[in-house]
TrEMBL record:
Residues in the DNA-binding region annotation: 36-55
GO MF, one annotated term: transcription cis-regulatory region binding
Pfam families on file: TetR_N
Keywords: DNA-binding
Spans traversing the lipid bilayer: none
UniProt-listed PANTHER family: HTH-TYPE TRANSCRIPTIONAL REGULATOR PKSA, HTH-TYPE TRANSCRIPTIONAL REGULATOR RUTR
UniProt cross-references to Gene3D superfamilies, sorted A to Z: Tetracycline Repressor, domain 2
Positions of the HTH tetR-type domain: 13-73
Claim: Calcium is one of the keywords in the record: no
Protein name: TetR/AcrR family transcriptional regulator
């Protein structure tokens, strides 16, 4: 029985996801320059011919992954700007980070991929875009913290410094997970938000 268009589309998306996952892992763990199309195809368990049907070049694949990561940050910025529940929103996000770093490996690879893109790109426009995106994220987070402080639900202090510490901790955990692999131990959820939780919170 011939496959339906929906089945073909599902297969196409599944293959594309396998390619992206394999490429992210290889770009981060062995470096962009040391990764070629054959490596990615082997990691994904497909032929190079099938990979080329989805991506014409390694550069195109890398660019799509970076754009995907940047779009995720933009979504988070919008989410923080529009949230009316600062303490609850930060707790929800910390919980998502905890689950992602505890059970998967996409988050750490996406975070390190953006870092790799910043330091490896030769275009000032890409560097500027990444720098601006990180600045916007810190500003949105610090504004969220200020709203929580005004509600009396978050610790008093310099909100921008808290935001910077919070995301530095997440970036550091992502790096440590890639380096330590099976020896990595994810800290408790409450430790992620300890920097802006009110004093007296339990660990």
């Amino acid at each position: 029985m011939p496959r339906t268009p929906e089945q073909y589309e599902a297969m196409r998306l599944a293959t594309r996801t396998k390619i992206q996952t394999a490429a992210m892992r290889l770009f981060v763990r062995q470096g962009y320059g040391s990764t070629n199309v054959q490596h990615i195809a082997d990691q994904a368990g497909i032929s190079t011919g099938l990979l080329y049907r989805h991506y014409k070049t390694k550069e195109q694949l890398f660019e799509e992954l970076v754009q995907f990561a940047m779009a995720g940050m933009e979504t988070l910025i919008d989410r923080f700007h529009t949230s009316g529940e600062p303490a609850e929103e930060l707790a929800r996000f910390a919980n998502e980070v905890y689950l992602d770093l505890s059970t998967g490996d996409d988050l750490e690879h996406l975070l390190l991929l953006m870092t790799q893109s910043f330091f490896s790109t030769e275009t000032n426009s890409r560097k500027s875009a990444l720098k601006q995106l990180h600045t916007d994220l810190l500003q949105a987070t610090s504004a969220l913290i200020v709203r929580g402080q005004r509600q009396g639900k978050l610790r008093e202090g310099n909100a921008y410094e808290m935001a910077q510490y919070f995301f530095s901790a997440i970036q550091g955990l992502a790096t440590m997970k890639v380096i330590l692999e099976e020896k990595f131990s994810m800290p408790s959820r409450s430790l992620l938000t300890l920097v802006f939780d009110q004093e007296g919170g339990s660990l």
